[in-house]
Amino acid sequence: MTSDAIASADPTALAQDDFRLFDLPRRQALDRADLDARWRALQAEVHPDRFASAGAAAQQLALQWALRVNEAYQRLKDPVTRAAYLCSLHGIDAATDRTLLPRSFLMQQMDWREALDAARSAAALERLASEVATRRAALLRELADHIDTHPNWPAAAGCVQALMFIARFAADLDARLDA
Prior knowledge:
Blueprint: H1 3-8, H2 18-21, H3 32-46, H4 56-77, H5 79-89, H6 103-118, H7 122-149, H8 153-178
Organism: Pelomonas nitida
Family: Belongs to the HscB family.
Subunit structure: Interacts with HscA and stimulates its ATPase activity.
């Protein structure tokens, strides 16, 4: 964007959804290299340093655009936050609506917590970590199916919640492995 384009940009354009901002389809499956390239290109256009000699209003708007591009990039680059965002675009708050988490996964959580508490060796912890990683990979595939192939937003939100638990549990597991 030129300084004239920044200065004359429609302020509501900052509110467009992340996929539109990056000119990408609203899909779970994204090519990370393509996303990274689009982020670099957008940052090159709106970086505040490009507007150092422009007026204060153009500099402020460039800063807002740069922040917006970075915020969208952070959301889109991670498959779980991307999925939560897609759910939100379809009216489901995957981060807070706990009623969407499958009962079977609630049981799995309890089993994993008990296994973590009972683990007395590095080998036991590593087996548990492997099991959790396998389940995470399966959930990511299931999530892509619920979003891209057979849209089912409540099921997708349930997968997001399960993946959020797995991320927290994996951190606890890593801390035990490090100890």
